[in-house]
Design a protein that fits this description.
A six-stranded mixed β-sheet has the order 4-7-10-11-12-13, with helices on both faces. Strands 1-3-2-6-5 form a five-stranded antiparallel β-sheet, sandwiched between helices. It has two domains: 41 residues, no CATH class; 146 residues, tt1808, chain A (Alpha-Beta Complex). It is built from five helices and 15 strands. The protein is of the alpha+beta class and 211 residues long.
């Protein structure tokens, strides 16, 4: 029987320890091996980014309401279609160019998941087709300044949705098939909507019971 991985003492493990650090995202030096060990023991979400373990902030009520709405929309769009696999934030996305391991609020894999294994039984997807991030004051800078750059390096990725939690605002990034560049379109009214793979997505449904 394999003994449990040892978590270095410098990392906060309990939710109480994380909450005591404040709402801002916290960074700690660490390896991918350290990150894999923490996944079993941390009581809050963590990510990995180039020799740093990121202690994520605790999600607000509006954030979780939007996440629930988005997952419901993805279910309605792709239910009955086995080609698309839907995931919540517990499923990490791994990008080898960092390496980084992020936990988007929602993701979709089209086809067979390409799985990366940190350690026995601890895996992440390398080929998301769609990624959704809900932006908050404590995460907005990372989402725009760090994570988007790595997301765009994923060859399989075709769509990225950045959704503001405090106002109706959605940025839809889409890979252009002709030359592999990315386009960006912003929507900022509840009456607006956009298409993903021929399926209509409306802002009113994204923000239902939130604003």
């Amino acid at each position: 029987m394999t003994p449990p991985a040892i978590v270095p003492a410098r990392y906060p493990v309990s939710l109480a320890e994380r909450t005591a650090l404040g709402p801002e995202v916290q960074r700690f030096p660490g390896t991918l091996t350290d990150f894999a060990a923490l996944l079993d023991q941390c009581e809050y979400p963590i990510e990995f980014q180039i020799d740093q373990i990121i202690a994520m902030s605790i999600a607000s009520d509006p954030h979780e309401q939007i996440v629930a709405n988005v997952l419901g929309l993805l279910y309605n769009i792709y239910t009955g279609n086995p080609e698309y696999k839907r995931y919540g934030s517990n499923r990490h996305v791994f990008v080898e160019q960092g390496p980084v391991a992020y936990s988007p609020d929602a993701s979709v894999v089209r086809g067979t998941p390409d799985v990366f294994e940190y350690a026995s039984g601890k895996t992440a997807n390398r080929n998301p087709w769609l990624i959704v991030e809900i932006l908050s004051p404590s995460t907005r800078w990372r989402d725009w300044g760090e994570k988007l750059e790595f997301y765009k390096q994923i060859p399989a990725l075709q769509h990225v949705l950045y959704i503001e939690q405090d106002k109706p605002s959605v940025n839809h990034f889409q890979r252009l098939p002709a030359d592999n560049r990315w386009s960006s379109m912003e929507y900022n009214a509840l009456e607006q909507g956009f298409e993903i793979d021929g399926q209509q997505v409306g802002l009113r449904a994204i923000y239902e019971n939130v604003l």
